Amino acid sequence: QVQLMESGGGLVxxxxxxxxxxxASGSISSTLLMGWYRQPPGKQRELxxxxxxxxxTNYADSVKGRFTISRGNAKATVYLQMNSLKPEDTAVYxxxxxxxxxxxxxELWGQGTLVTVSS
Length: 119
What we know:
It is a single chain. By secondary structure, the protein is mainly beta. It contains no helices and eleven strands. It is 0% helix and 59% strand. The strands form two sheets. Strands 2, 4, 5, 6, 9, 10 and 11 form a seven-stranded mixed beta sheet that branches. The chain has a four-stranded antiparallel beta sheet with strand order 1-3-8-7, with no helix packed on it.
């Protein structure tokens, strides 16, 4: 069974930086799209950034210029470099992967990692 696992969350002061990582366990034939979503306290989950297999990136307006998404060498590996963090970036961050396991399409979610930005 393929699973995604995030790491790198924590507590940081406003203006600081964090780097989130997401790796897959299990067999994956190919990666279609990887992304990061977040769910602030009391709010709905929202898109942060995505990156395609061709390295085309997409960012939420709220993080453009501050966050950078990138792919690792291993399949279904993705990173999120977060700079100039603001208190409103506080959320549980989830990794999302749309992958192929042979001919089977899978949409995967990680368990989430908490990012807390103090003012």
